[in-house]
Amino acid sequence: MDALLPDELLHEILSYNVKVLRSDFLELDRDRHRWVVGPSRNSDLLLVSKRWLRIGTPLLYECLQLTKPEHTSSVATLFRAQPNVGLAVRCLRLQGGLGRDLVHVAKYTPKLQHLLLDPQIKSADSIAGLKKAFPLFRASDLYLESDLAYWRHNKKVIAAWQLLYAYMREGTFLRTLVLADHFRAMNNEFVDALAASSIEEISCDTHRAEEYITSGHMRRIIGSPRLQRVVCRGALAPERTHDLLRTNGFSAADVLKFSIVEGPRDAHWRRIFRAMDEAEAHSSSDSDSDSDEDA
C-alpha cells in the first residue's frame, strides 16, 4: 500500500507522527532531563519498511539533544554515514557530550537555526570539541538556559563560557539571544561579548531586565549599533520598566527599543513557537529539496 504513496506525501504523513514540535523542544526554564529519554514520538513507525526508515529518520533528528559523550559519538557516526540526516537538524540542545566527537556533529549540521546551551559540566568531563565546534555552528538564534553564577566552582564550565563569549563576539550570523527567566548572572565579560556581537534582538525576563538596567549593564548592551530590540517577558506593569529606563537616563530612542510583553511568559512564547512550527510546515517541501541536493 505504501508503495502507492509518493515520497513527498509519505514524508508529510510521517512528520505529523514523528517530529517533535519546536515549541516544546525550545522551551526554557523546564526540567532539563525531560528530553534525555523523551517521548516515543511514534518512532516505531519507521520500522515498517526500509523506505519508511529512510524518509523518516531525518525527521527524528530535526530537534537534537546531546547530553553524554557516548550519545554525541553515536550521532557523529550516524551523520558521517548518512549526511542527509545531519542536514535535517534545525534545533540543538547542547547539555553535555562536548568532547572531540562534537566537532563532527557540527560539521554535518550546516542548516542549524536554533542553538540552546545548558552546559552541566563536571570537572572530569571533556570540552575538547567545543572550541572547534563553536565556529561551525551557524545558528541565528542562541538560547541560554544556565545561570553562570551557579557553576563558578567548576573550571571546565568557566572555560566553556569563555568559548561562548568568543563565539558571540566573532559570529556574524547570530541575530537573536533568548535568556531563560532564571538567568540572573550578567558579568562584565558577558556584557562585553554581547555588545560586540551581531545580535539584533534580546529576550529576557522583565525582572532580570530591570536588574540589568539598574546595574548599568543594559546601557552598555543597548549601545551596540546592531541591537534593535529588547523584549521583556512577563511584565505585569509595562510602564514600570519604561519609567525605570527614563529614571536611569536612557534616551527616548533607546526606550523605544524595549518591547514590554504583558501576561504569562509561557503563553507568549507558545504563540511565537506555534508560528515557527506553522512556518516550518509550509516550507518543509523546500527543505526536502535542499537536503536532496546537498546530499
Secondary structure elements and their pairing?
Blueprint: H1 7-18, H2 22-25, H3 34-37, H4 50-60, E1 63-66, H5 69-81, H6 83-87, E2 91-94, H7 101-107, E3 114-117, H8 130-133, E4 141-144, H9 155-170, E5 176-179, H10 188-195, E6 201-205, H11 206-215, H12 217-222, E7 229-235, H13 238-247, H14 252-255, E8 258-262, H15 265-282, H16 284-294
Parallel strand pairs: 1-2, 2-3, 3-4, 4-5, 5-6, 6-7, 7-8
Helix pairs in contact: 1-4, 5-7, 9-10
Going across the major beta sheet, what is the strand order?
1-2-3-4-5-6-7-8
Q: Quick one: overall form? A: globular
The total count of helices amounts to 16
End-to-end span in angstroms? 28 Å
How are helices and strands ordered from N to C? HHHHEHHEHEHEHEHEHHEHHEHH
The level of helicity is 40-55%
Count of all domains: 1
* Structural category: alpha/beta
Q: Which spans of ≥5 residues are poorly predicted at pLDDT below 50?
A: 35-40
Instruction: Please give the number of β-strands.
Output: 8
Instruction: Report Rg.
Output: 20 Å
Mean model confidence by pLDDT: 80
Q: Could you give a short account of the major beta sheet?
A: 8 strands, parallel
Strand content: 5-15%
3D structure, described in words:
Residues 35-40 have low confidence and may be disordered. Strand 4 (141-144), helix 9 (155-170) and strand 5 (176-179) form a beta-alpha-beta unit. The protein is an alpha/beta fold and 295 residues long. It is 48% helix and 13% strand. Helix 1 crosses helix 4 (50-60) and helix 5 crosses helix 7. The protein is built from 16 helices and eight strands. It is globular. The chain has one domain (2-199, 264-294). It has helices at 7-18, 22-25, 34-37, 50-60, 69-81, 83-87, 101-107, 130-133, 155-170, 188-195, 206-215, 217-222, 238-247, 252-255, 265-282, 284-294, and strands at 63-66, 91-94, 114-117, 141-144, 176-179, 201-205, 229-235, 258-262. An eight-stranded parallel beta sheet has the order 1-2-3-4-5-6-7-8.
